[in-house]
Amino acid sequence: MRLHRFHGGLRLAGHKAESTRDGLRTCTLPECLQVSLLQHAGEAALPCVAVGEVVVAGQRIGVATGEFSAHVHAPASGRVRSVSSRPVPHLPGVEALHVGIAVDAIQPAAPLALPAMDAATATPGELRERVREAGIVGLGGAGFPTAEKLSAGRELLVLNGAECEPWMACDDALLRAHAGDVLRGGLLLARAVGATRVLLAIEDRMAEALAAAHAAATALNDHESSAVEVVAVPTRYPAGGERQLIQVLTGREVPRGGLPRDLGILVHNVATARAAWRAVALGEVLVSRIVSVTGRGVADPANYVVPLGTPVSHLVTQAGGYTPAAARLLLGGPMMGQALAHDEVPIGKTQGAVLVLSSDDVADERGEMPCIRCGDCASACPSRLQPQMLLWQLRADRLDRASDQGLFDCIECGACDLVCPSHIPLTAHFRHGKSTLRLRALDAGRAQAARERHESRQQRLERESRERAERDARRASALDASSDDAVAAALARARAKRAAAADPGTPP
Ligand code: SF4
Ligand code: SF4
Predict the structure, then answer these.
(1) pLDDT in the model for residue 89
(2) Distance CA 404, CA 390 (A)
(3) Per-residue DSSP letters for 335-360?
(4) Residue 190: which of 244, 259, 268, 297 has the closest Cα?
(5) pLDDT per residue as tens digits for the range 269-300
(6) Is the N end or the C end of the chain the one with fewer CB atoms within 10 Å?
(7) Residue nearest to atom 7 of ligand 1 (CA)
(8) Which residues contact ligand 2 via a Cβ below 6 A?
(9) How far, in Å, from the CA of 387 to the mean position of ligand 2?
(10) Ligand 2 mean position to 95 CA, how many Å?
(11) Cβ atoms 275, 70 nearer than 8 A
């Protein structure tokens, strides 16, 4: 298959081997889980359990509030200890309700499951509904509700196993252990959108994952395997970005402001595909995910199957605890991860790594200097942006101009930060600019909604008053008519009486 290149990007050291030596480990349950009701892009789920209630593993504890939301399930049996607002780690400045579960010492052998379905005969609508019921969202980091992504037809499905962030190896570990599930999930997702071709893209440095994927593809039946192709893509950060991967595989660029669906392409992370397969074939709801616990600041790096809601502190303890060199804690990889101020943060559906950097890793950090307009950031930018220009607009508070110049096409990959000789934290500026614009749009939307509510109330009051007036007028005219009739009848009776008095032979 002919592959293509995307603009910019960087060649980075991988550091995947540090956590993939021992295969997958299972993280033990902590005493208490904090399960966020906003582990996805879109609206938070609404809690459907109360404090003190007993919950069973797999039971729904949060109900999706629409298409752009996702159900949340209890990862373990126990008792609800709290339903409280806490910060959402992947959305700085945002808080959401979390369900705190005091975990039972004895757990059921398996979480509650939905009835298993026959993947071969289920209709696309049934597959979408099952994915929605199971609370599946994009596990590659974006967290977009998967069922919503399956709502339009596509020609090509790309399974994204090009895990390009250094240190992160959750997809690598997943593919080594469960490549068959990933391919079966891919075929199922392809059927849900009518795609006839499935490409499983894996970075060429992930040799074991590639071997496992090829073996799994060979094990598919003839009909299935003819639709699937395993592709080794060149290792270049950020090859795992949705747009960059599409360009590498097809040579086509997603237009600025557009989406892969504009090209008839659907991209799903490999872990999402596996979760979809298990939801359909086994009825499993999404209550755990694979997380890399890695970095020079952790004693025994490995990849763990982690119950959602597990605190980072518990996970790091599983991996042998912090080393004396531990200096910085990140949720995610070194390029796109979020720095954490403490480790009492729960793992959610979109978090694939806990990275503990050592003092050596962060030693060469220098202070920010003025931009020298060298253009290195633009050369590295995989989205073909001019980061120095965006920065200029943002610093002048010209957010709309920054938006016109492609701010929302920034995938926050951090490549510009890494190459900037002036050590300007460009990505942080872009992230902040985007969230400010989103908040402004949200405020504007709320103001517009309030205006519309006010106008519609005014219209309703006017309509009711008009209708009341019309009713009163009708009643008055009916009264007039009936009183005319009554007067006429009284006159007739009086005339009849007088006539009877004048003629004594007529009975009264
Ligand atoms: S790399 Fe840094 S110094 Fe160079 S143009 Fe970009 S922002 Fe300015
Ligand atoms: S963070 Fe944004 S602007 Fe910087 S290189 Fe990546 S896509 Fe380009």
Answers:
(1) 79
(2) 10
(3) TTPEE-SSS--B--TT--EEEEEEHH
(4) 268
(5) 999 999 999 999 999 999 999 999 999 999 99
(6) C
(7) 388
(8) 380-383, 385, 387, 410-416, 426-427, 430
(9) 7
(10) 26
(11) no
In the three-class reduction of DSSP (H, G, I as helix; E, B as strand; rest coil), residue 202 is classed as strand
In terms of Cβ atoms closer than 10 Å to its own Cβ (0-12, 13-18, 19+), residue 486 is exposed
Are residues 72 and 45 in contact, defined by beta-carbon separation less than 8 angstroms? yes
Question: And the tokens for 280?
Answer: 């359909």
420 C-alpha vs ligand 1 centroid, how far in Å? 5
Nearest CA to ligand 2 atom 7: 410
Q: What's the CA-to-centroid distance between 219 and ligand 2, angstroms?
A: 40
Amino acid at 272: T
Q: Which two tokens stand for residue 463?
A: 């309509």
Backbone angles phi, psi at 259, to 5 degrees: -135, 160
Ligand lying nearest the CA atom of residue 377: 1
Among all bound ligands, the one having the nearest atom to the CA of 395 is 1
The alpha-helical segments, DSSP class H, found in 405-425 are 415-419
Q: How many angstroms is it from 421 CA to the middle of ligand 1? A: 7
Handedness of CA 474, 477, 481, 487 (dihedral sign): positive
Indicate which residue's Cα is closest to atom 8 of ligand 1: 371
Nearest to 365 by CA among 429, 294, 418, 427: 418
Which ranges of the chain have pLDDT less than 70?
A: 363-365, 503-508
Instruction: Answer whether 373 contacts ligand 1 (Cβ < 6 A).
Output: yes
